[in-house]
Amino acid sequence: MNDNTPRNPITLLGLGDMGTALARTWLAAGYPLTVWNRTSAKAEALASDGAAVAASPAEAVAASPLVVLCLLDDASVEAVLDGIDLTGKDLVNLTTGTPSEGRTRAAWAEARGARFLDGGIMGTPSMIGPGAGGYVFYSGSRALFDVHRPALEAPAGARFVGEDAGHAALHDVALLSAMCGLFAGISHAYALIEGEDIAPKDLAPLLSAWLGAMGFFVGNAAERLTSRDFTSGVESNLAMQVAASGTLLRTAAEQGVSTELIAPYLELMRRRLEADPASHGGEDTTGAITLLKR
Ligand code: FVH
Which of 10, 27, 29, 102 could form a disulfide with 118 if both were Cys (CB 3.0 to 4.6 A apart)? Predict the structure, then answer.
């Protein structure tokens, strides 16, 4: 954003850790900002930085055409906006939710005469601010996104992922779910060496490098899921991987470590192989993904 970009007023409802980081960035960028928070002390703390503190959600909503929500969950969004006139407002909901909650909230907002954009924040509060590395998935009203893009891009990058209001949440949760698996694997690795003469700080760079090298699986799996070709060019086939998984489980037993974090994935691979060893044995592990959809 350059210095000539107009700074249109923004209202922000919700000043938890993330809301406060957003507020501080908009204020530093020169946006007229009205804030409201259930616990008023958090709003008042921003007054000295130039925020206008509203006495109620209704007063805050009335103050700006663009209304941003950063609350705990969808139930708190419902509670805060209950009974407020939203006619003509542009609502941007940065509260984490499910795809279904995003779609339902979009229909709810549109029925009240508002345009709606759902957002999924990819970053922690310290990743909010110019160049801090965070970004937000947005989906819903393209017109709203285009009109308010400079304001939306002030605190974090902005990626529009479609007019289906559920798709920001779907992208957000897909990435967070992948992170769960990554953290689970890292946790298991550290548990394996606990009590041994191997310092976690010595394993750390090895783990980082290995996970980086295995990152090829992200793009490789995408190509295979598109082509449905799970066998061409496979270097580490499923039959071998299932056999090797016994070593992972026995090592955990030897080290006195629970297998609860890795066993579900190993079991999925075993089920894929067992379904048809002759044809699935030569696949990579991508084929196991097809077992997950219910
Ligand atoms: N912090 C993070 O690392 C993550 C990064 C990715 C995105 N998440 C999501 O962002 C939403 C807000 O997160 P947060 O970190 O600001 O959360 P808290 O610090 O816990 O603040 C919660 C705010 O919600 C208000 N609130 C809760 N319930 C109600 C309610 N029933 N009525 C009105 N307001 C409510 C709470 O108010 P108060 O406790 O200060 O009075 C805070 O303003 C969230 O969806 C994350 O998943 C953050």
Answer: 102
